Amino acid sequence: TYVVTDNCIRCKYTDCVEVCPVDCFYEGENMLVIHPDECIDCGVCEPECPAEAIKPDTEPEMETWVEFNRKFSEAWPNITTRRDPPEDAEKFDGEAGKLEKYFS
Ligand code: SF4
Ligand code: F3S
User: Fold this and answer.
1) Could you say which ligand is closest to the alpha carbon of residue 32?
2) Which of 49, 53, 72, 101 is a plausible cystine mate for 8, CB 3.0–4.6 Å?
């Protein structure tokens, strides 16, 4: 599976949702997640993210992100069409500690 990681927070570009063949993105207030059981591992969303927030679970230490994505995809609504990102999205791209600072 692929998962969304913390650099999505407050960037939320949503380019990813347009390309997913199985529509498995879910939307929280300031980030998206992927449902790990619905993702078919096609990989097309990964290069679409301007913030490079989407990663395959084959990268080291991704278990926590898989669980995070599962938990919130079961609580949040599905999103299938792109939205305008926050006006200050660029400012947050690459900032450290976003999960602790901003996740809501
Ligand atoms: Fe969707 Fe493919 Fe990305 Fe999985 S890897 S979330 S199926 S676009
Ligand atoms: Fe987030 Fe990147 Fe999608 S910033 S909303 S994972 S395009």
Assistant:
1) 2
2) 53
Query: In angstroms, what is the span from residue 49 Cα to ligand 1's centroid?
Result: 12
Evaluate whether residue 101 is within a structural domain. no
Number of domains making up the chain: 1
Which residues have CB under 6 Å of ligand 2? 4, 8, 11-16, 32, 49, 51, 53-54
pLDDT digits (tens, 9 = 90+) for 12-62: 999 999 999 999 999 999 999 999 999 999 999 999 999 999 999 999 999
Alpha-carbon span 94 to 91, nearest angstrom: 8
DSSP state of 19: H
Closest residue to atom 1 of ligand 1, CA basis: 20
Residue 72 lies in a domain: yes
> Which pTM was predicted?
0.97
